[in-house]
């Protein structure tokens, strides 16, 4: 089982990468999946060149293929101006819009304040719904204060949210039907191809 983690943090170290690592480890413990982390910061120029030329270079193509072929995906972005980062959106713009169909996805985000936590629901979840992915019910947001590990009477801790989201993704991964690869060598007779084009 292969799990790909896409993180769009721009700094090093990055709170987005830290959250992504914690989510990935929680899912790995439940599924023993092989985990690969993709830092979009390292692909920023490749993504920009793809927009200019219309073609992905070898490095970007390999990452897109890894994301497409993975059994599950964890996607984490910092929140800028109330939404996902431009780099995060640009990467998923160059992924074919049918490539994630039916793929289980866990979404996460980081930000300086808890006030931006709804960006997961009004920005990230609709993006992956448009891409036809299956997004787990629990999205994980980590504000600056979450890293201190403090709890209060009104919110559960970050660790609890990570565990709940990991349980949901692991459950989807365990019960997901294996992907059927199209038989690219199959020959469709020309008469059958023409019949498919005829109006009823």
UniProtKB/TrEMBL annotation:
A matching Pfam family: FMN_red
Database matches in Gene3D superfamilies: 3.40.50.360
Listed GO MF terms: oxidoreductase activity
InterPro entries according to UniProt: CE1759_FMN_reduct, Flavoprotein-like_sf, FMN_Rdtase-like_dom, NAD(P)H-dep_FMN_reductase
Entry protein name: FMN reductase
Ranges where the NADPH-dependent FMN reductase-like domain occurs: 1-147
Record key words, sorted: Flavoprotein, FMN, Oxidoreductase
Lineage: Bacteria, Bacillati, Actinomycetota, Actinomycetes, Streptosporangiales
UniProt cross-references to SUPFAM superfamilies, sorted A to Z: Flavoproteins
Gene source species: Nonomuraea maritima
């Amino acid at each position: 089982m292969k799990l790909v983690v896409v993180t769009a943090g721009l700094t090093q170290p990055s709170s987005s990468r830290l959250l992504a690592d914690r989510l990935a480890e929680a899912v790995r413990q439940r599924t023993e999946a092989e985990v690969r982390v993709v830092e979009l910061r390292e692909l920023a120029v490749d993504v920009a060149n793809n927009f200019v030329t219309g073609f992905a270079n070898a490095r970007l193509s390999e990452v897109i293929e890894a994301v497409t072929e993975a059994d599950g995906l964890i996607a984490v972005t910092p929140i800028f101006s109330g939404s996902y980062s431009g780099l995060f959106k640009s990467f998923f713009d160059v992924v074919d819009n049918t490539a994630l169909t039916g793929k289980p996805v866990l979404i996460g985000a980081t930000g300086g304040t808890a006030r931006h936590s709804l960006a997961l629901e009004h920005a990230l979840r609709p993006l992956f719904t448009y891409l036809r992915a299956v997004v787990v019910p629990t999205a994980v947001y980590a504000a600056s204060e979450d890293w201190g590990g403090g709890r209060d009477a009104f919110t559960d801790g970050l660790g609890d949210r990570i565990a709940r989201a990991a349980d949901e993704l692991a459950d989807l991964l365990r019960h997901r039907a294996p992907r059927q690869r199209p038989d690219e060598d199959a020959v469709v007779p020309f008469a059958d191809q023409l019949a498919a084009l005829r109006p009823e």
